[in-house]
Write a structure and sequence with these properties.
Length: 248
């Protein structure tokens, strides 16, 4: 029984390379990436791979040499430029492991440009593991033909986020109580945007007041039912992408 190809037959494996790619360049990949290509995908020397660098775009490369603990990829030619990504940030209170991984993966797939973890009063996660979250972002981008990665910012407190809020950026605040129509808000507010989603326990009254006091904040409802934070994030991003993003 031939091994099931890990990739659909008509598409090549894709890898994110955190270095600027160029024609005829040689990339030495580390043990983890080499192991993935050689032992998981069972690629042989000469196999073709697609690479993207979140800088120039996507390139075709060849698995030129397989070492004991690394491998060399030779870049052949450019396939496409880095994609344009809509200017949408997701500000989110970190939620527990597993669900936060899902949240960042979906934010990447849906086209968010920047992820900002925000520590709020009821945030149950006090320490983030950025490297783990970044690996989920990269894996989602590799699997979904992306040529751009969302930026993952350092976690900040809600007060600091609000104090430094950029003047020209609308903050669509997902307010499970007292939010207005998201559809109407999208018509009224174009330009750079962000979505703010609270933790499992929601925002405190003081936080709600502080957010609403921000001139750029627009409280919006995600319907009459309370959604889990990760569901709320995916729903809000989808609504923005359909209304103001690049889905039309
Ligand atoms: N505060 C509620 C509680 O304590 O059970 C639920 C918080 S909810 C799980 C997490 C976040 O998702 C909320 O802070 C809000 O940002 C967003 N959210 C969930 N349902 C929503 C809705 N129907 N409308 C707007 N935002 C919602």
């Amino acid at each position: 029984m031939p091994a099931t190809p890990a990739w659909p037959p008509d598409s090549l494996p894709r890898l994110f390379i955190d270095a600027t790619l160029e024609e005829d360049g040689e990339i030495v990949i580390d043990a983890a990436q080499a192991n993935y290509l050689v032992r998981v995908l069972r690629l042989k020397a000469g196999a073709q791979i697609k690479l993207f660098d979140d800088r120039t775009g996507e390139w075709l490369a060849e698995l030129a040499h397989i070492g004991k603990r690394d491998a060399v990829l030779r870049v052949e030619g450019k396939l496409r430029d880095r994609e344009d990504v809509p200017d949408l940030w997701l500000c989110f209170a970190p939620i527990k492991k597993g669900r936060i991984d899902w949240l960042v993966e979906k934010a990447c797939e849906l086209g968010v440009a920047r992820l900002l973890p925000v520590r709020t009063q009821r945030t149950i996660v006090d320490k983030l593991k950025p490297a783990r979250l970044k690996s989920h972002l990269i894996e989602a981008a590799e699997q979904c033909e992306r040529t751009a990665l969302p930026e993952l910012a350092e976690m900040v407190s809600l007060d600091a986020l609000l104090a430094d809020w950029p003047e020209k950026r609308t903050l669509f605040y997902a307010a499970e109580r007292g939010g207005g129509s998201f559809g109407e808000a999208l018509v009224a507010h174009d330009g750079p945007a962000a979505i703010l989603i609270g933790p499992e326990g929601g925002f405190t009254e003081r936080e709600d007041e502080a957010i609403r006091a921000l001139p750029q904040a627009v409280p919006v409802s995600l319907g009459p039912r309370i959604l889990r934070a990760d569901t709320a994030a995916a729903a809000a991003i989808s609504l923005w992408m359909a209304g103001r993003g690049d889905w039309n």
